[in-house]
Amino acid sequence: MFEVPSVADLNVAASLPVTLLALGACVFLLVDLFIPQDRKYITAGLAAGGMLVALVLALLMWGDVIELRDGDTAFSELFIADTMTHVVNIVVLITGLLGVLVAYNYLERTKIQRGEYYYLILFTTTGVMLMGGANDLAVVFVALELLSIPLYILSGFRWPQEESEESAMKYFLLGAFASSFLVYGIALIYGATGTTSLPGIWEAVNDIVAEDAASKYLLLLGSGLALVGLGFKVAAVPFHMWTPDVYQGAPTSVVAYMSVAAKVGGFAALIRVLVAGMPNFVLDGETVAAWQDTVWLVAALTMLLGNIVAIAQTELKRLLAYSSIAHAGYILIAVAAAGTASVADEAVRAVMIYLMAYAFTNVGAFAVVIALEKDDATNTGLDSVRGLARTNPLLAAAMTVFMLSLTGIPLTSGFVGKWFVFKAALSADLVPVAVIGVVTSLVSAFYYLRVVWLMYFEDGESEASTPWPLASAIGISVAGTLLLGFVPYLLSEMTNDITLAFGG
Description:
Largest sheet: 2 strands, antiparallel
Strand content: under 5%
Helix content: over 70%
């Protein structure tokens, strides 16, 4: 018989940032009905204010100002509030705030300024936060859909522009197909373990491995299908085919936000499902998780394809799309390393550090593309940056910082992220994939530094528009990229207390 959860079972305090953001999104949606079309800056301000409040709460919870036990649960143990949850919240809320800043003037000049845009951003952010704190496979799936459906709509926000409609349709169809893989994987995991609770799965896996039960094959297939569903969300090869077309056709402000938020949610879910739920799933005679080899092979393929195909791109948005695929590969290295029990906590910290570094860098790079893009969505090719250093030296300097960080040059946050990822891989004895990561980073220098070359050493009349919200987003992104590069201690300290919530 269904039991009504008590106040203690709900423990809303543990989920305060995500709960308030979800409620705020619903309230702001109704408030926007009374806001005139020529005053949508109020809507943007409400959305930014809601995320700022949630960010302050997340920072207070991370810093133990709001005291919680690490691993405290909410909603009858469906949600868990540990250090990883707080870090995921901080990363995606910063991304959301930057996403609102880069969007406002872009929506104005492209004549698509509508209040729905900001609520969809809020709902997607809520989905990412729920994935970061998911303690049950059912929550993983619901959060994935809450993350994805608003992004499908946002991709087609430039209706009736054909490219935007096409990107939305491709994203929706392939995303729905990938979700079906995840659901089937969850069903098989449930069939093997008898539960969808991640702590319960961990305990059941212990029994399956100890008894060498036949259900281990069902569990293996289920975890593989779950990897397919979440691999699509992070744009890992071979589930990446949607990425270049969607990035090309969707509004650039959407892509700036989506390129980070979707990855944060996808990797948070991968860590919850594989690293927290099934780190003890080993096959006969093995000492590492059964899924480790598959993940590092996917990581290697993702880095190789993303970096090699990016060389041939002549469009900035497609170049950054393949760059995004490649960076998913680098993060997957750390996920694979977490399959070695002694390295798991270090590897999870590396994932979080990389995502924080990537958030500032990638949103900043797309913000520069927005500054260059014309109202009809043209002028996003590589030729658009020719001579930018002469016509807009500050914007060129900002883009240079972002390109160097994406390459992984020292004194940028990108270098710090790769350092921790490769260190985790070597600690887990994954030397081949670490070598592939270093080599492909060198390959990536060609197409990233080509952008810098065009800005500084080629003639052109590059034009850019940087109203104050967009300029603020670029400035914050530059500051974050350099600060985390010059003071890597900040990233290390933020993630220092991340440990698996169970399995210890």
